[in-house]
């Protein structure tokens, strides 16, 4: 059937030796870690823990940019629980805790004026 042919074809893409040995990675997609780190640091969302955020250092070349492990960080992702919230007219103030540290965050609300 069409479905079994498609599933077989898709399975071959991720398990054949030419597909990077499994795991869904294509040949050449991983590259050398060091060169990929430099090339993607501006566009990649980096997963970090709050301890890393709290210890981040300003870049020596641009104080508006912070670095973690000597890599400039433009976007980051954190998984944390919300310990406290406080509603403000334009934003929601939150205290985030991931077990390694706590940090205050603001979520700006989209208010529509009528």
General description of the model:
With 114 residues, the chain is α+β, with helices and mostly antiparallel strands. The protein has 3 helices and 8 strands, in the order ααβαβββββββ. The strands form 3 sheets. A 3-stranded antiparallel sheet has the order 2-3-4, with no helix packed on it. The protein has a 3-stranded antiparallel sheet with strand order 6-7-8. The radius of gyration is 21 Å and the shape is globular. The termini are far apart. Mean pLDDT is 73; it is low at 1-36.
Name its key features.
single chain, about 110 residues, alpha+beta, three-stranded antiparallel beta sheet, globular, disordered N terminus
Summarize the helices and strands and which ones pair or pack.
Elements: H1 2-15, H2 33-40, E1 45-47, H3 50-54, E2 57-58, E3 66-68, E4 71-73, E5 75-77, E6 81-87, E7 91-97, E8 102-108
Parallel strand pairs: 1-5
Antiparallel strand pairs: 2-3, 3-4, 6-7, 7-8
* Rough outline: globular
The number of helices is 3
Largest sheet: 3 strands, antiparallel
Sequence stretches where pLDDT stays below 50 over 5 or more residues: 1-36
Number of strands: 8
Assembly status? single chain
Q: Which range best describes the helical content: under 10%, 10-25%, 25-40%, 40-55%, 55-70% or over 70%?
A: 10-25%
Question: Distance between the terminal alpha carbons, to the nearest Å?
Answer: 56 Å
Radius of gyration: 21 Å
Strand content: 25-35%
Q: Tell me the series of helices and strands, N- to C-terminal.
A: HHEHEEEEEEE
């Amino acid at each position: 059937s069409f479905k079994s042919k498609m599933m077989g074809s898709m399975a071959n893409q991720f398990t054949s030796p030419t597909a990077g040995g499994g795991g869904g990675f294509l040949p050449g997609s991983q590259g050398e870690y060091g060169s990929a780190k430099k090339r993607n640091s501006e566009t990649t969302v980096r997963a970090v823990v709050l301890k890393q955020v709290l210890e981040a250092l300003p870049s020596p070349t641009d104080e508006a940019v912070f670095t973690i492990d000597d890599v400039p960080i433009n976007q980051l992702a954190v998984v944390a629980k919300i310990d406290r919230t406080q509603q403000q007219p334009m934003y929601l103030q939150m205290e985030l805790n991931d077990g390694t540290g706590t940090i205050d965050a603001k979520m700006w609300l989209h208010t529509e004026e009528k």
